[in-house]
UniProtKB/TrEMBL annotation:
It comes from the Eukaryota. InterPro entries: RNaseH_sf (IPR036397). Gene3D superfamilies: Ribonuclease H-like superfamily/Ribonuclease H. It comes from Rhizophagus irregularis. The lineage of its organism: Eukaryota, Fungi, Fungi incertae sedis, Mucoromycota, Glomeromycotina. This is Tc1-like transposase DDE domain-containing protein. GO terms for molecular function: nucleic acid binding.
Amino acid sequence: MDISSTKGSGAPLTDNEKLMVIKQEIIDWLHAHDIAFSDELRKPELLELVRMNKEKVPFACVKIAEQYEHEVNFTLPYHCELQPIEVVWSVVKGEVARSSPHPNLLSVRNTLLNAFKEKISSKVIVGLWRRAIKNTKEYFESDENIQFTDDEFDAYSSFDDDHVI
């Protein structure tokens, strides 16, 4: 059933009717996949069932890695010790917060761009990346199930001129 469909009279569906159509589509999907559920479940609970039972499609990088008998391990999202971009954003947002009040979004944009130019050099990015690799190595070393050779990490950690914010 199309959410944008109209009633038999040609009048558009109300928001409540659209929500009912969406819920019915979720129910139909669950039935089509032979997933048992209670009729008393609400839409969020039904969506959670779909999420739990939906086929996981691997990222292309995982498929490529598997072709070469490698394994991809994902780090925690938004983790400042493992995701260098989090430190970059922290610095840039700090610059925006410390600057004078902004009369409009263009002013905020210009302050962001200037902060990137003035505070985030390639040397800083390399330093942050090396720090993230070092932290990742420490996390992996604390996990006895993961085996890495030091060569995989040493190629990135042999520089003395790391420049970190």
